[in-house]
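Handout, section B. The chain below has 295 residues.
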Amino acid sequence: MLRRNFIKNTTVLSASALLVSPLELDFVLEANLKNVGLQLYTVREDMNKDALGTLRQIKSIGYSHVESAGYNKRQFYGQSKENFKMILEDLGLKMYSGHTSTGTGTGKDSYNMSNNWEAVCEDAAFMGQKYIVCGWFSPDERKTVDDYKRFAQLFNKCGEKAKEYGLQFCHHNHDFEFLPLSGLVPYDILLNETDKNFVKFELDHYWTQKANVDSIQLMNKHKGRFPLWHIKDMDNTASKSFTEVGSGIINYTTIFTSNAKKYMDLYFIEQDSNHKGSPLQSIDISYKNLMKIKV
């Protein structure tokens, strides 16, 4: 479907549907956190139902860029790369980063790190991305130390090819990479057995907290390896579930004022689930709370 038809056939949002008014988009200057990104996995169901309307609301809140989690068969959220790029441009949004998959067990007609990787890089570069990120490992592909060693080599290979397209390859962590396997920490394997020029990391501060890992110490130990951050919060319950940024127990003032911040290029608010109301309401709350941080 052409972009113009996609827009024409999308219901125009009423004023009451917008989450904030233009007057509320003024930034808190003390925060110095103006370039706020959103990982679109947070609003994945909304994107699948109404991509244009969802992106409009994201822009209206104040987000300046997004990170994709909807690339499949050379399309972004069901749109050709040409159409999706024009939609973003019309809304004044950038897409500097996008997630991809390892492709373990997939066929040659798939597009991921294991198959047709050069085409994946080509599409990411076309979109104006600076980064391309391995989003996660499934349970079946991360059972042993050797699995992680193989991934380290795949990272090097993918990262080298990504460089040819002006892209930086990264890996996004969860908590399981920090759980020892056969006496070794898998995340250490990924850090130590990859080329620091080809492979960097997107640090998810929620998951490091869940794994009882000090994010700041980790970043200080491996300076320059963490250009991307995921900003999500943890509630103060036994389940340690997701919550809106600024509503939980992670001290983002300390993180954003640490020396490690000077090596950070971009960050993205994300909340996997447990939203207050709807995901769109949650990203509004998170955005506003983040703007209150004094750094």
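Note. The radius of gyration is 19 Å. Compare this with the example in section A.
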